[in-house]
Amino acid sequence: MLNNFKIGKKHIGKNYPSYIIAEGGVNHNGKIELAIKLIDKAKSIGADAIKFQTFSAEKLVTVNAKKAKYQLRMQDKNTSQFKMLKKLELSGEKFFLLNNYCKKKKIEFLSTPYSFEDADLLVKLKISAIKTSSMHLPETPFINYVSKFKLPLLVSTGMSNMNEVDQAVQAVRKSGNKKLVLMQCTSAYPSRLEDSNLNVLKTYESKYKCLTGYSDHTLGKTSSFVAVSFGAKIIEKHFTLDNLMKGPDHKASLSVNDFKDFIENIKNVEKVIGSFKKIISKDELEMRKKMRRSIVLNKRLKRGTILKEKDLEFKRPGYGLSPKFINRLVGKKLKRSLQKDDLILIKNVY
């Protein structure tokens, strides 16, 4: 049985709605004012959480590290990855302010730590869950460290193979942390639809007996909708105030109106999924009386007539005797005369 748990006040589990994270990431462009606006908008459109990224450029990347291709497309090619990230980082004091602001707005504050010190900071802020980035998956010491806090752990699996996923899951389980969500992710910005590989969600659930989620980096919304239909209980999608803003992730993010539509559609997907049991809807209960067929006479017959199969046919509505009971009528006598198209009931024969 899959473990259910809470992130803040929201239940995460098979019998609960999808938990939707608006990934603000670094779309605040290093400005707390923009981060606050992201929080406000995420709350207004109904996201369960707003997530940022907690890092220090000095501890994340070397001075000479090259940019990824997507960063080159979105940023000044002459600016190093270090300088780019330095402009995007927020101080611990600012994260303290953002966390308090989220409490005031009643939206969950989440952030991805990129170092041991970052994780310590977030735990001091009493964060309700930890989301690890895909780069952390093969870093067993880091997975061990964040697992021991016993907080819900959302583990992104981009850029990894199954052996690496195995090792990460073992590290989490060894710590005794049972609040694991494996997040399918394709680490490309944007990623192609054909690289979404959402069937692996079923593999994760069956192999590791854990809840699953999806960190969606595609430009559209289709992959997330499919992920929900495949059982993903946490959906994360990049969120921006304006796709035209300067920054590495804005163009691969959903704008405010698009994200609102995204959330509404996920709720509709959940309605469509239904249960594993075949059930009759309320509307169908009335419909089947009118649309199913009953046994009727195909001509007028007098009282005492012995019924033959050729005297009977099937017509709507379904208020009478079902066609599956025709053998109960054949060979029986009519108790009274009936007209063509009259419904025949068991009480009409002897």
Can you give a write-up of this model?
By secondary structure, this protein is α/β, with parallel strands linked by helices. Helix content is about 35%, strand content about 15%. It has 12 helices and 12 strands. The strands form 3 sheets. An 8-stranded parallel sheet has the order 5-4-3-10-9-8-7-6. Helix 8 links the parallel strand 7 and strand 8. Helix 1 packs parallel to helix 5, helix 7 runs parallel beside helix 8 and helix 10 packs parallel to helix 11. The mean pLDDT is about 95.
Give me a quick take on this structure.
34% of the residues lie in helices and 16% in strands. It is an alpha/beta fold and 350 residues long.
Class inferred from helices and paired strands: alpha/beta
Poorly predicted ranges (pLDDT <50, ≥5 residues)?
none
Morphology call: elongated
Distance between the termini: 55 Å
Q: Provide the succession of SSEs.
A: EEEHEHHHHEHEHEHEHEHEHHEE
The tally of strands reads: 12
User: In what order do the strands lie side by side in the largest sheet?
Assistant: 5-4-3-10-9-8-7-6
Oligomer: single chain
Helix residue percentage: 25-40%
Give the percentage of residues in beta strands: 15-25%
Q: Mind telling me the C-alpha Rg?
A: 30 Å
Mean pLDDT: 95
Largest sheet: 8 strands, parallel
- Number of separate helices: 12
